[in-house]
Design goal:
Blueprint: E1 7-11, H1 16-27, E2 31-36, H2 39-51, E3 56-60, H3 66-80, E4 85-88, H4 103-113, H5 115-131, E5 134-139, H6 154-172, E6 177-184, H7 190-197, H8 202-208, H9 218-229, E7 240-243
Parallel strand pairs: 1-2, 1-4, 2-3, 4-5, 5-6, 6-7
Helix pairs in contact: 1-9, 3-5
Keywords: Oxidoreductase
Protein name: Classical SDR family protein
Pfam families: adh_short_C2
C-alpha cells in the first residue's frame, strides 16, 4: 500500500476531486484527515470510510479563515499524529468582470483559491522539516497555463498557485520536502456539470475537443495525487502534472 503509515491532510475533501483523493489515499493505507465547509457531506463520507476500517477524520473548517484552518489542523494532528502529506484542493470558480469586480470580491476569491496554499504549508512545514520528509500537492488547473475567456481572475489564481509550488519546492528541498502541482482539465465534478449545463450546446462542444474523446473522472486525478504523496515519487518536485487527457497539447 503506497501510503501506509502516512497522515494525509486534504482541504475541500467532501466531494468532487477532493472526495476522490480522500477515498484513494485511504484505500492506499493512509490515515486521512480532511476539511470542508459542507458538514453533512463531510461527516457522511468520513462515517462511510470509517465503517470499512479506514482511518479517516473530518473537521469542518473554512480555508479562508486561518483560525479555523489552524484549529482543524491541530485537531487532526492530535488524532493521527504529524501530517506527512498535504493536498490543497479547496477552491471555487470565478467568472468576474475586471471593471465591476470589487476589492472585497477579489480578496474573498484569492483567500480561497490561492492563499491557503501558503497557510497549510505554514502549518505543516515545521513537523516536515523536523522529520526531513514530506510531500505537498497543490491542485491547480489547466487554467494555470492555458485559460479561456470569461475566467477572470481564475487563471490568475491558478498561475499564482503554480508559482507558489515552484518556490516552495526550491526552498524546502534542502529539508527533503517535495512540492508539486496537479493540473486537471475537464473533470466530471458537480462544478463542471453546472458549468457545462449552463449553456445549450456547451457540453457537446467540450466533449468534441477532448483528445481522449471523453471528460475525465475525479478518481483519475486522485491516482496521480496519491503517487505524488507516496515514496514512489521521491525524486519528483517542483513539477506540474497535467491530468487533462491531452487537452493542453491541443492547438486552438
Amino acid at each position: 500500500m503506497k501510503l501506509a503509515n502516512k497522515h494525509i491532510f486534504v482541504t475541500g475533501g467532501a466531494k468532487g476531486i477532493g472526495e476522490a483523493i480522500v477515498r484513494d489515499a485511504a484505500a492506499e493505507g493512509a490515515k486521512v484527515s480532511f476539511i470542508d465547509i459542507d458538514v453533512a457531506v463531510g461527516e457522511k463520507l468520513a462515517a462511510e470510510l470509517s465503517a470499512t476500517g479506514k482511518q479517516v477524520a473530518f473537521v469542518k473548517a473554512d480555508v479562508a479563515s486561518f483560525e479555523q484552518l489552524k484549529s482543524a489542523f491541530e485537531q487532526v494532528v492530535a488524532k493521527f499524529g504529524d501530517v506527512t502529506g498535504v493536498v490543497n484542493n479547496a477552491g471555487v470558480n470565478s467568472h468576474a468582470d475586471p471593471v465591476t469586480m470589487t476589492d472585497k470580491q477579489w480578496d474573498d476569491f484569492f483567500a480561497i483559491d490561492m492563499k491557503p496554499v501558503w497557510l497549510t504549508a505554514k502549518l505543516a512545514l515545521p513537523a516536515m522539516r523536523k522529520a526531513k520528509s514530506g510531500s505537498i500537492v497543490n491542485i491547480c488547473s489547466i487554467h494555470g497555463r492555458l485559460t479561456y475567456p470569461g475566467f477572470f481572475p481564475y487563471g490568475a489564481a491558478k498561475s499564482a498557485v503554480l508559482g507558489l509550488t515552484r518556490n516552495l519546492a526550491l526552498d524546502e528541498g534542502k529539508h527533503e520536502i517535495r512540492v508539486n502541482a496537479v493540473s486537471p482539465g475537464y473533470i466530471l465534478t458537480d462544478l463542471t456539470k453546472n458549468y457545462l449545463n449552463a449553456e445549450v450546446g456547451r457540453a457537446e462542444r467540450a466533449n468534441s475537443i477532448q483528445p481522449l474523446g471523453r471528460i475525465g473522472q475525479p478518481s483519475e486525478v486522485a491516482k496521480v495525487v496519491t503517487f505524488l504523496l507516496s515514496d514512489k515519487s521521491t525524486y519528483v518536485s517542483g513539477s506540474d502534472w497535467a491530468v487533462d487527457g491531452g487537452l493542453g497539447a491541443r492547438s486552438a
